[in-house]
Write a structure and sequence with these properties.
The complex is a heterodimer. By secondary structure, chain A is of the alpha/beta class. Helices cover 34% and strands 21% of the residues of chain A. The radius of gyration of chain A is 19 Å and the shape is globular. In chain B, helix 4 runs antiparallel to helix 5, helix 4 runs parallel beside helix 7 and helix 8 packs across helix 9. Chains A and B meet through strand 6 and helix 2 of A and helix 8 and helix 9 of B.
Chain lengths: 297, 279
């Protein structure tokens, strides 16, 4: 066994194309791994298949080729080991804030007592600052609060792997900043393994240990694995003062603006079993074979 | 100093309090004035109709349909308790008919809403059956069931099952696919999906269907009770006609209307309680 917590091997997804015998390949030859407790973001332009990869990891979708091994087992369907935070809060509107969380906690640990389920759920809601609105229905919450309930719910079931599909995409910039910091706090306390899709370069620099960069679809690939070599705890207000901030950010932006496209056309001629290049923009001469986890606190 | 203190503690004079009470009473009055006016208009129309009948020598015999004699007969029925027995029989029949309609209609509606093929398969036959007046089944019901009671309950059930089925199916079709995804992600199987996602999501639509069904059932009940039974509000109307007690007949019509209104009000409460959409 490879020993990685999560191992994605040669993943591909093809869709039949109307009016053509050849199916469209959204992505292929996707190989990467994630360690336990690591926070990994994936960035790529629309249509590169990020969401499909996430759905495969969640067991909600199936790859056309390749497989995913988590903790030594192949993922073959949804299970309580994978928690998902969707782009739209996805709360059940007839349940209160508290019951949206207890509902999930009870599903995870059916043998727990009522009091224990409640106590556990309240603890996670308090972590995202929602201890005061337990009895409100989602319709009575702001967009930011709803997304926080979704975060509390996903963390509360303590999944082996937490998946987030652009969790803050629907929020305004100010709320997004506040909730990003809340996410950092709750993550620092729980050390969940996180795989997150984002479109926001700054968000990925703030949150991630590593950023996976995808080339444009069709035939998209994970081209690079960029180490975010910035010490934790990180704060939004001081992040840009860190020496590592601009090298990482510039590298990501440059990839998205320029190389996502050029690499996409070049990739077709290369070996399909493509392993992403590990890059550390802070120390460009140092190419470690595996990313060292940089974390403090 | 003094000024900030007065700002922090506003003094309410008795005049302010009085104004507040008047305003509160005003809101209540405004909420009730149109319903009250509506009732008054109906009573006035009834009274006017009664006078016209009483003053026409051809129709004078029916003068006790007017509000005066009717309300006296109504009070008589309530004070002697005679009103309760037909109400009980009728409510029992409607209740049983509705129970059957719900037991059949809700699962059927969930299945039709969930499976597209079933929806396509049942569309023509069900729309065909739905359009047949429940009373048209009367002769068949009488042949098919051993007792009159069972025949009436069948007629009510067949009238009530369609609104419940279609409201339920509509509710299922409106379920946000995201909620199924959430359920699957939490490891929900078919039972849990039904119990924790589908049923709470459609409760409001099911009650809306039951509200429509109650209306239809209550309407079908009276003609159905003209059949062989010797109890219930429909029978009481027929009986009063045969004995020429028109004041009693009108009083029963009044009872039917009041109970129908109350049944509807209960359904409205249930819809509101199970509602989570802002509509």
């Amino acid at each position: 066994m490879t020993g990685h917590f999560l191992q994605i091997e040669n993943l591909a997804r093809r869709f039949p194309q109307p009016g053509s015998k050849e199916p469209t390949t959204v992505f292929e030859g996707v190989n990467f791994s994630i360690e336990k407790g690591e926070f990994v973001c994936i960035i790529g332009h629309s249509g590169c298949g990020k969401s499909t990869i996430l759905n495969v990891l969640a067991g909600l979708d199936y790859p056309s080729d390749g497989h995913v091994i988590m903790d030594g087992k192949v993922i073959e369907g949804p299970s309580r080991d994978q928690g998902v935070i969707f782009q739209n809060h996805s709360l059940l509107p007839w349940l209160s804030t508290l019951h949206n969380v207890t509902f999930a906690v009870r599903a995870r640990w059916p043998s727990w007592s009522r009091a224990k389920i409640r106590e556990h759920s309240v603890r996670y809601l308090e972590m995202v600052g929602l201890g005061e609105v337990l009895s409100r229905k989602p319709a009575q919450l702001s967009g930011g609060m709803r997304q926080r309930v979704g975060i509390a719910r996903a963390f509360a079931i303590e999944p082996k792997l937490l998946l987030m599909d652009e969790p803050f995409g629907a929020l305004d910039a100010l709320t997004r900043g506040v909730i990003q910091e809340e996410l950092l706090k709750i993550w620092a306390r729980t050390h969940q393994t996180v795989f997150m899709i984002t479109h926001d370069v700054d968000e990925s620099v703030l949150l991630a240990d590593r950023v996976l960069l995808m080339t444009n679809g069709p035939n998209a690939r994970v081209a690079e694995s960029v180490i975010v070599d910035i010490p934790r705890p990180r704060e939004r207000a001081t992040l840009h003062e860190q020496p590592g901030y601009y090298p990482v950010r510039n590298h990501l932006v440059e990839f998205l603006v320029r190389r996502a496209k050029t690499l996409a056309s070049a990739a077709r001629d290369t070996d399909p079993r493509h392993t992403p290049r590990t890059v550390n923009p802070v120390k460009p001469d140092n190419f470690p074979p595996r990313p060292a986890l940089v974390r403090s606190g | 100093m003094n000024r900030t203190a007065t700002l922090k503690l506003p003094q309410y004079s008795s005049r302010d309090l009085a104004l507040g009470v008047v305003r509160g009473a005003d809101t209540v009055r405004k909420g009730l004035q149109y319903p009250a006016l509506g009732i008054a208009l109906l009573l006035a129309l009834w009274w006017w109709g009664g006078t016209v009948i009483a003053n026409n020598p051809d129709t004078m015999a029916f003068a006790s349909f007017a509000p005066g004699p009717t309300l006296v007969a109504f009070w008589d029925m309530v004070s002697t308790g005679a009103v309760w027995s037909p109400i009980e029989s009728s409510l029992q029949r409607v209740g049983l008919g509705l129970v059957w309609a719900i037991v059949i209609g809700v699962p059927l509606g969930v299945a039709i809403g969930y499976f597209l093929q079933l929806r396509q398969l049942t569309h023509v036959p069900f729309q065909f059956l739905r359009m047949i007046s429940p009373l048209a089944w009367m002769p068949i019901a009488v042949l098919a069931f051993a007792t009159w009671d069972a025949a009436i309950i069948f007629l009510i059930a067949i009238a009530a099952v369609w609104p419940i089925t279609y409201a339920t199916a509509h509710g299922v079709q409106r379920i946000d696919p995201m909620w199924f995804k959430v359920g699957r992600n939490l490891g929900a199987g078919p039972y849990h999906t039904l119990r924790h996602i589908i049923l709470p999501a459609i409760a409001q639509d099911v009650f809306a269907g039951i509200r429509l069904a109650v209306g239809v059932a209550w309407i079908v009940l009276v003609p159905a009770e003209y059949l062989g039974v010797t109890s219930g509000l429909g029978y009481a109307i027929n009986d009063a006609r045969d004995t020429l007690e028109y004041d009693k007949l009108a009083a029963i019509v009044l009872v039917i209307g009041i109970i129908g209104y109350l049944l509807d009000a209960i359904c409205v409460r249930l819809i509101k309680r199970s509602s989570y959409r802002e509509e």
